[in-house]
Amino acid sequence: MPPLADDLRGLLQLFWSRLARLLTGTPPQTIALTGVLGLAAFLYGIYQLRQAGKRRSGTSPRRAAASRAAFQQQQQQVQSSSIAHQQQSTPLQPACAQQSHILKASQPAAAASAANTAAGLAGAVRAQLAGVSIITMSAPGVLLQETEPHQLQDGACMQESAAEIVGAMAQVANVFILAQVEDEIGEATVRCALEEAELLGLKQGQVKPHRLLFCSTLEGKVSMVRQLEPGLHVDAAAATIESLQRFMPQLLYIQQAHLPPPASGSNIGIARSLAEVFQA
Amino acid sequence: MEDDSDYEDSYVASDVEDYPTSEDGDYGYDPQTEPEISMRRAAYTVLSEEELKLRQQEALQQVMQVLSISEGEAVRVLRHCKWDVNRVNEEWFADTEALRDKIGLVDEQPTGSGRRKESCGICFDEFWVSEMHAAPCNHSFCRGCWKGYVHTAISGGPAVLSLRCPLPDCSAAVPAALVTAVSDPKHREKYHLYSLRSFVEDNQRLEWCPAPGCENAVEALHEVSNEAMDVTCRCGSSFCFNCKEEAHRPVDCETVKKWIIKNSAESENLNWILANTKPCPKCKRPIEKNQGCMHMSCSQCKHEFCWLCLASWQEHGERTGGFYNCNKYESAKKRGDYDAESLKREHARVSLQRYMHYYQRWAENDRARSQALSSKAEANDKKLEVLSEFVATPTSQLKFILDAWAQVVECRRILKWTYAYGYYRFGDNIPDEDTAQKQQQGFFEFNQGQAEMFLEKLNGVVEKDLDNLVEEFKREPGLSEVAPDGSVFVDQASSPERQAVWSKFREQLIGLTEVTRMHFVKLVQELEKGLDQLLAFYSEQPEAEAEAEVEPAAVSTAEASGSATPAQQATAKAPKRSKRSRISSRAAADKASNSAAAFSLQEADSELEAEAGYWQCRRCTVINRDLNSQSCSMCAQNRRGPISAS
Amino acid sequence: MTAKTRVMKEYKEISRSQADEAIELLPDERNILLWKGLIKGPQESPYEGHIFELGIKVPDSYPLAPPAVHFVTKIFHPNVHFKTGEICLDILKTSWSPAWTLQAVCRAVLALLSAPAPDSPLNCDAGNLLRAQDMRGYSSMARMYATRLAAMPQGSSIVEQPHPSSLNTFKEDH
To answer: Where are the active-site residues found (chain C) (predicted)?
Structure first.
């Protein structure tokens, strides 16, 4: 037998005898206390393991609630700051509260409140659009500065940062762009503007060219949105929002400066621009 | 005033046809059928299957001659124009080509050379042209394919009568000859049946009799409008020409439809549930309280609660005033918490009660009518024979009994529908301020009540009194002797006492029948004219009303006796018209002159009565033979003086 | 005269003469009563340049009863149900005549594509677009769906693949 094994055995025997002496020598209460402490430690260990497991799968009720609260606060700040001079705080509160209820935030709001980096933007968009697979939007007023069909005859201008947001959206969902125009000139104008902003194409982060749709009437646009069945529709025309209110799970109304909002509803969100909603 | 002339025409017609004596089989009513009270009768005839075929042939022949077309084409043209020969002529000569195109009558195409093969357009096989069939458009198909095509079409229903060429763009009509040539006997028969049925179904003037098993059809001999029109088939059933429901004048067709739907609809059930039950607070099932205690327990979910305030029973019991009160309920009621709900409940209960009131009476009269019908049949079969033996009169003289039964049947029908009328006419909540409505309702109910009283009387007499009489006769001595051959001694029958009793009964019954009939006539007219107009007149002229009631009595006696005073001749047209015209003429006159004229008329009355040998009671219009009596034998109304209230 | 005989005759006729280059009819190898029809979108219509597949089921009582035809390729058209492909065409229901052939039926479907009837719509949104006289909207929707869902004649199709997404999984459900 090797000497190492001998030593080992001796050590073990020593340890065992000392333990036995300790146990037989100590009063019973101490043993009980030790047992209780050991049990507690055991249970705590299990609990920690479970928490770790939950964190890995991505949902944590406590953390989700916390992030939602933070997101709400952020929304409220945005809304109240933009319409502070109008007496509409009350209808907006429920509107944005409901909005957050639908757009579930899974990632912590920390990402949303990050700086205006592309990663932050994508994250924000992804965060708010979780669960939505199809998005439709009406180009005038939302992506373009022009709002009326007749204004599109001369040319179209993209709104700042709108292109990036749409690009981010296109990465996470199917995006369709609708535009109400008067004739082919209007069509060409819109298409040009979008192409210049490099929004149309087959690459990632771009809207496929055949998903740019035109129509000549408001009822037509409503029918088209109903046919596409999006999870979210963004529009700048109050009439469209009103017509679609009963059918759409979620609507976002981009409010023009001087016009009143449409009838409020639990599924209508209101903002001054896309940037407001999707950026910190 | 234009209304008047309409009524005049119809009254003339009805007067003539009131009691038809001709045995002409053309008219749908003979002395045996029930005397119809509906005044606005229109002419109609009943056609059996044979007669229908004849009619159809007649129409076909006529069209064939006038338009110079074949029978097959004539059928198509007639079907298109709803079997109205006049319409056919109009449309044909207005634009022949257009009509022919619409129907599919094409000119015969030349067949070309016979000895050649063509492929059938359906099965793509080749056949000799001479073996294939074609519609006048000359698109040939083989016999087998034609057979399949025609059989499928026949199975599809009467639409096969408009069958067109199988070729998609060809609208040529397939003639009946071709259809019968290619189909087997079973389908051929079906096709003929459709053909005959089309004559009635496509025709606006003909309707099938809705009685089960009856194959007759009724033809209206005038322009068919959308109004209710009662007709009676040879099989005995009466129905409304317009809506095919049972005869329902004086009520209009929509009311009848609504009433029938209401009787069968679930809405009344729901109303009852609302009025009489409360929902369980927990499981919401409707619960009806069947005991006095307020402590309820739901049989389904076992929840226990207080009936009054619907709160859970745990918080109840002694604390809230015991088992029969509920302080919570009382205080809440004082506060007005239960107001809306109890109001709703109240409404439901009231409307349900109202509906039940009318429905019960409607159903009772309906049942009574069926009973009366069977009693009439029974009387016809058995009782008349027995009776004729007892009173030594041939059965032909005893028709008045059958007439009385017929009257009962008819009056029951009218009375029944007046209840349906009343339900819809006088709505659920008449505000008390609407006195016109209330007056009309009172007026209507008064007349209805009068009519009903006389109907009950008539029913009683013809049912019970007659039976009692027969029993009495049986019990009298002398009739219990039965000869060995079974014959009964009838010498008692000719005895003067027996005869006196019998003739008294006879007069009473006949008089009562007539009185009831008049009452119902009045009721029917009022409902049809609309209560508003009559009421306006009546409310203005109370004396004139009393006046007018004398008039019809006097006029009908004038008719019967054949004499008339000049004052009455001017208004001798018909009872109700005279009443109306008299009212309208009175309306312009002074009230003083009214009473003066009334008095002079009374004098004329007594002259007339003396001539005729009887006087007619002003209230119940029964004929009193005793010229000296001062009160009516039937209703005890004073002969002279104001009419006392019933 | 059974359905099979008549269908065989039609097949012979079709193989013999390729009359219509816009219509291709192919029977199923195992069952002569099941056919696949490939029709080219008519010129001057938003379906131009695309091929649509029809599923045709021939009943036993053919030709006395009409065949059951539906769109296998999804198409945006007022008289075609978007999800089931059911076609609302009178000759397939009440106006059927035994003289119609499968080719004639396909021709009628093509005619329907060129001339939609918005008054009896199976696709309400398409019907509404036409009733609102919004030809632009109707054409762009029809073209968009044809591009996404229908094949191109050369055989290269740009039928859409599911969108590549790393984090969120969403389905291409059109």
So the answer is: 88 (glycyl thioester intermediate)
